[in-house]
Amino acid sequence: MRFVRRLLVVAATVLVLGLPASAVADTPTQMRAVVRAWSARLNANDNAGIARLFALPAQVIQAPYAFTLRTRAEVAEWYAGLPCSGRVVTITVRGRYATAVFKLGNRGSTPCDAPGSLAAARFEIVGGKIRSWEQVAVPAAKQNPPSPGAA
After folding, report:
1. For the chain, what are the domain ranges?
2. Cα(first)–Cα(last) distance of the chain, in Å?
3. What is the pLDDT of residues 83-107, one digit of tens each?
4. If we measure between CA atoms, which residue out of 66, 131, 133, 63 comes closest to residue 99?
């Protein structure tokens, strides 16, 4: 409920002041909500829904490739090619970047190449929209979590 109130305040600020959405700072809570929405739509195979979460043009980086996607159709097509779903494990926010760690699983009829393993992505979020998405290395602390009872 607090998120909805904050979202309404942001929308009202944009409308009243005539500011572009990118001029309003995103809170860590809002940024986490965008990442969770991205994950939910990815897991539901809703590529058009994912595309609506992006500002255009958008950058997607999955080394060694980097692309500038200029239309929602291009964003949807890019994500249609990802074979894995991703359940959010953690989200860390620093500035305008949210880095999420996901546990991978199968997505739709496409088998994931590494189900059960962890993957990470860094989202640049401005004005409630994703400006860039980059697959990054899983932070070392998340790669080998301590087993229960370990000191």
Report:
1. 17-140
2. 39
3. 999 999 999 999 999 999 999 999 9
4. 133
Residue with tokens 């190449």: 113
- Per-residue pLDDT tens for 31-87? 999 999 999 999 999 999 999 999 999 999 999 999 999 999 999 999 999 999 999
What is the rounded CA–CA span in Å between residue 52 and residue 56?
10
Write down the pLDDT at residue 147.
44
Burial label, 53 (beta-carbon count in 10 A; 0-12, 13-18, 19+): buried
Strand order of the β-sheet with 84-94 is 65-69, 54-62, 129-136, 118-126, 97-106, 84-94
Strands 118-126, 97-106: pairing kind: antiparallel
Ramachandran category for residue 140: left, alpha or beta (phi over 0 → left; psi -120 to 50 → alpha) = alpha
Name the architecture of domain 17-140.
Roll (3.10)
